[in-house]
Specification:
It is a single chain. The chain has 15 helices and 22 strands. A seven-stranded mixed β-sheet has the order 14-15-16-13-12-18-19, sandwiched between helices. Bound molecules: succinic acid.
Length: about 475
């Protein structure tokens, strides 16, 4: 009925130390497009999480002792299997998360790309030699795996947010435990099944699925055998998990919320800007940390941009992600829709106008219409908060300084975008934006080779790229003395 060709990819148990663990209770995974149960999954808790940490600890010595080449070969197998099963993995992802099938398959390729990329990059963990201050000494720097890595990952990218962390960890020689979001455990478990088929040894990659977020999170952030904790999710949760990690002084990386400005300068190629805003905003129904959150348009081109943008967004097709032609799927839950509705309605009360959409759709209570609001100011709730839904607020500005000031007027600093054809504007604005990532005449910036991460309340650390590996490595300084005859 679910139309998964390889039924063994549909797992219902946690994967710990190379085995599938059932628990006494279970919980349902719900398809947000239909509100129907996909499957029930065994509900792991604190004891299974402790088992997973112990398994990762036991596996660490042998895994870190393998050569980078040996680890790369196993990771390459994992990558190949993910791509071979892209259709099934994409379908599982759409069933539990809702995004359109084409987008879900795109996420599988995006997620797998981290495994391929880090498998290679692990071969380039170079050390250093440093001229010593005296002739009888030598200074050498080596890099070693941090140890056991624990992570908590979100529902919006159920595959890629795991592979982006796990690939870096495994290639560095670390072992890994993940607690995926309870809304989307099936993608994580399918990844575990393929890791096993790829020959990744027991205990190296563990997945614990369970509803006790507090209890399981406490184990992952406070267990003395966990050396590093990494999280993708909201800023409030990230803050509290960071403070939990303090008691054991763990290495921490956090990929948290965003409030991305998308700035359209008067000299921009408006058609390109419309396309950039469209993909950046409506990908994953706006449920992406790097999604455009506010569109700032120069007053001289506001009318032209608005007309073109309304026309382009009107072409989007909202519906069940498994149906042909659908380009925007449901949001993750009716609650998520209600939260967006509240931001929109409060902003309308403050003077924003609806240029398109603005309502919960008749397709169901998880569907919010692709929406455009005009006449928005930065103090309105729809601009001041991370929307995490398919709504574009349009804000007018009159100068470069004003655009930068509005863009930076937020606690967040993850991604920003702008469109201009002037080289002076491009440099000044790129340098003036207080963000970890800036798309210049480009709406999609994520890929395995680039450093993904934010500043300010959007977190710390980087994922992907050569910088992403550093978060999983310790630097060790060796001082060799007594070398004089
Ligand atoms: C995220 O929403 O945090 C991830 C988005 C991406 O990788 O592009």
């Amino acid at each position: 009925m679910l139309n998964i060709k390889d039924q063994d990819l549909l797992k219902r148990f946690s994967y710990i130390n190379g085995s599938w663990h059932s628990s006494e209770t279970s919980f349902d995974v719900i398809n947000p497009a239909t509100n129907e149960k996909v499957v029930s999954v065994s509900n792991a808790g604190i004891s299974e999480t402790e088992l997973a940490v112990a398994a990762a600890k036991n596996a660490l010595k042998a895994w870190s002792a393998k050569s980078a080449n040996e680890r790369a070969q196993l990771m390459r197998n994992w990558f190949n299997l993910m791509m071979e099963h892209q259709d099934d993995l994409g379908r599982i992802l759409t069933l539990e998360q809702g995004k359109p099938l084409a987008e879900a398959k795109g996420e599988i390729a995006y997620g797998a790309a981290f495994i391929e990329w880090f498998a290679e990059e692990g071969k380039r963990v170079y050390g250093d030699t440093i001229p010593a201050p005296s002739g009888d000494k030598r200074i050498i720097v080596i890099k070693q795996p941090v140890g056991v890595v624990a992570s908590v990952t979100p529902w919006n990218f159920p595959n890629a947010m795991i592979s982006r962390k796990a690939a870096a960890a495994l290639s560095a020689g670390c072992t890994f435990v993940v607690r995926p979001a309870t809304q989307t455990p099936l993608s994580a478990l399918a990844m575990a099944e393929l890791a096993e088929r790829a020959g990744i040894p027991a205990g190296v990659f563990n997945v614990v699925v369970g509803e006790d977020s507090r209890g399981m999170g406490k184990v992952l952030t406070e267990h003395p055998d966990v050396a590093k904790f990494t999280f993708t999710g909201s800023t409030p949760v990230g803050k509290s998990l960071t403070s939990q990690c303090a008691s054991t002084v763990k290495k921490v990386s956090m990929e948290l919320g965003g409030n991305a400005p998308f700035i359209v300068f008067a000299d921009a190629d408006l058609d390109a800007a419309v396309q950039g805003a469209l993909v950046s905003k409506y990908r994953n129904a706006g449920q992406t940390c790097v999604c455009t959150n506010r569109i700032l348009v120069h007053q001289d081109v506001m009318a032209a941009f608005t007309d073109k943008f309304v026309a382009a967004v009107s072409e989007l097709s909202l519906g069940n992600g498994l149906a042909d032609g659908v380009t925007v799927g449901p949001m993750i839950s009716a609650q998520a829709v209600a939260d967006v509705e509240k931001l929109v309605n409060a902003s309308i009360e403050m003077g924003a106008q609806v240029a398109l959409g603005g309502k919960v759709d008749q397709a169901g209570d998880c569907f919010y219409q692709p929406t455009i609001l005009t006449g928005v100011t930065n103090d309105m709730p729809i601009a001041a908060n991370e929307i995490f839904g398919p709504v574009s607020p349009l804000i007018s500005f009159s100068s470069e300084e004003e655009a930068i000031a509005i863009a930076n007027d937020t606690e967040y600093g993850l991604a920003a975008y702008f469109y201009s054809r002037d080289i002076g504007t491009i440099w000044r604005v790129a340098e003036g934006l207080e963000y970890g990532m800036v798309g210049i005449n480009e709406g999609i910036i994520s890929n395995a080779a680039a450093p993904f991460g934010g500043v300010k309340a959007s977190g710390n650390g980087r994922e992907g790229s050569k910088y992403g590996l550093d978060d999983y490595l310790e630097i060790k300084y060796l001082c060799m003395g007594g070398l004089n005859k």
